[in-house]
Amino acid sequence: MNPPPLTVVLIVPTGVGASIGGFAGDALPVARAIAQVSDTLITHPNVLNGAQLYWPIPNALYVEGYALDKFAAGCWGLQPVHQNRIGLIVDCAIEPELQLRHLQAVDAARATLGLNITDCILTDRPLQVELRISESGASWGTIGNPDSLLRAADKLIAQAKVQAIAVVARFPDDEGSVALENYRRGKGVDPLAGAEAVISHLIVRTFKIPCAHAPALSPLPLDPHLSPRSAAEEIGYTFLPCVLAGLSKAPQFTTQKAQEHSQLSITADRVDAVVIPATACGGSAILSLSGRSTVQIIAVGDNKTQMQASPEKLGIKALQVNSYLEAIGVLVALRAGISPASLGADISSLRCLSDSTQQI
Q1: CATH 3.40.50 region(s) of the chain?
Q2: Which of 61, 127, 65 is CA-nearest to residue 94?
Q3: Considering the entire predicted model, what is its pTM?
Q4: 110 three-class SS
Q5: What's the pLDDT score for residue 337?
Q6: What 3-state class would DSSP assign to 26?
Q7: DSSP states along 129-153
């Protein structure tokens, strides 16, 4: 009899300055490697999006962050699809030339990748995105006109029957800022990531369909000292291609009632392991999944973040590893049915539970 499939969740929280996964799709190699030892990899756009660079991973599910939280809590299931019908929302604040660049990127994705992107809509008011950095060092942001975003999404769903939505919002150009300079040098926090999460969360929470966002920005001047981790964002005029590729096969979301009638829906009780930066364990998804006794939490030490939410501080039982290479070794052991503890030089003695009525 074949063993049950191994399902792994890979999380790198958005906008927390992760040294791996905090830049332009630089956790994608980690996702590709973990997918090789998993039957199903569940992760989120922050891990897989690399601007114009992306990589098709057949057994990876591209799940927006709010939806991942709902999945981990057991509220939503994930229904794999062959292909989604994608609609595009474009912020009317984007300049005409920059709008055209994005629309041409969509046409390229349709013609070259065969993606089913059917309709586009301009917002009726500028979205007015503003960027912020919190006291903890994480990035976040606000939208001045969220109702305009929701009206556009509602029209795409009602009239065009789209199954997933890509959003392109005009973000403030921040050329010359310390935060942007640090990010381009491979340090600090992505100043855009927190605001991007606000946009996608709003649509997913309201309409319960897949959504991801690509910021529209003016091209930056060439920088000879650019970090390789940030370089994917410097090779074109738009970050949209990876978003469209991810949404094309993003799973649909099912409620608990719908899950009862679907054998294909993947639910939280299927999760075997979660891989997370060791200092960023305070998110909703990890807190929900850590409460399941069958889930192995793997905390990666060398993926540093701006957070201080370690498993110990949160009372989470986790296996601490130094690197993603070591985490992959743990997953190989789990898949083989081998206790990771047995692979070390020292094995502790068997525990004996005390019972006052019996003696061994």
Answers
A1: 7-76+253-343, 86-249
A2: 127
A3: 0.93
A4: helix
A5: 93
A6: coil
A7: EEEEE-TTS-EEEEES-HHHHHHHH
Q: Given pLDDT bands bounded at 50, 70 and 90, which one contains residue 287?
A: very high
Q: Convert 62-106 into a string of H (helix), E (strand) and C (coil).
A: ECCHHHHHHHHCCCEEEECCCCCCEEEEECCCCCHHHHHHHHHHH
pLDDT of 164 > 90? The answer is yes
CATH of 86-249, one of 3.40.50, 3.30.2450, 3.30.390, 3.90.1010: 3.40.50
C-alpha distances in Å from residue 347, one per residue of 79, 103, 296, 350: 41, 59, 19, 9
CATH number at 7-76+253-343: 3.40.50
Structure confidence at residue 250 as a pLDDT band (50, 70, 90): very high
192 pLDDT band, cuts 50/70/90, is confident
For residue 228, the tally of other CB atoms under 10 A from its CB is 10
